[in-house]
Amino acid sequence: xxxxxxxxxxxxxxxxxxxxxxxxxxxxxxxxxxxxxxxxxxxxxxxxxxxxxxxxxxxxxxxxxxxxxxxxxxxxxxxxxxxxxxxxxxxxxxxxxxxxxxxxxxxxxxxxxxxxxxxxxxxxxxxxxxxxxxxxxxxxxxxxxxxxxxxxxxxxxxxxxxxxxxxxxxxxxxxxxxxxxxxxxxxxxxxxxxxxxxxxxxxxxxxxxxxxxxxxxxxxxxxxxxxxxxxxxxxxx
Length: 237
Hints:
By secondary structure, the protein is α+β, with helices and mostly antiparallel strands. It has one domain. Helix content is 34%, strand content 21%. It has helices at 6-50, 58-68, 168-171, 211-226, 229-232, and strands spanning 69-75, 81-83, 105-111, 119-128, 133-140, 147-154, 190-192, 203-205.
């Protein structure tokens, strides 16, 4: 066999490509269940974080989530219930952030302590920062107005600046604020420039040097929560 001619080189290269492609496909298929499990656990950890339940070991995430999250319902922009979400992980949880639309809006109904005051509602958030996507969850108290907790994350914001939206110091300042002012028909919860908070009921302190990322958080809160206004029954407030 002449190993120096072009035909040999082409055949050999083609066989190598086919073998490598097969191996990669095989490994990807074998690892897929574990990858999906990791994604599921990470999503549940984010939802729990919005309920101020953090640092849960991966081995305990599923049981803690099952304990606190009662329903993963779906509503539409008119506030009508599309799916009750009584079968865990089958309805709202099954929707990815990209699949959320005015016709399919997930809500996680949770019970963090006994009684009416222990009931919380978690809403997913997705928006744009300076360099890429930002996302998170916001938990409201049973009044569907007061913030119980938040969780924010990002794809590629600047370390030490926009990336600080993941820090507790930034997220915790939302706790106790309201998403809308008395008599308002809009989402008023927002982030302002650092040191310029005037209305402490709805304004949170921004991060110095990360104005565009903070604006992205404000837009995300407004745009995403506005889809739920009919469910939140703004017209009754």
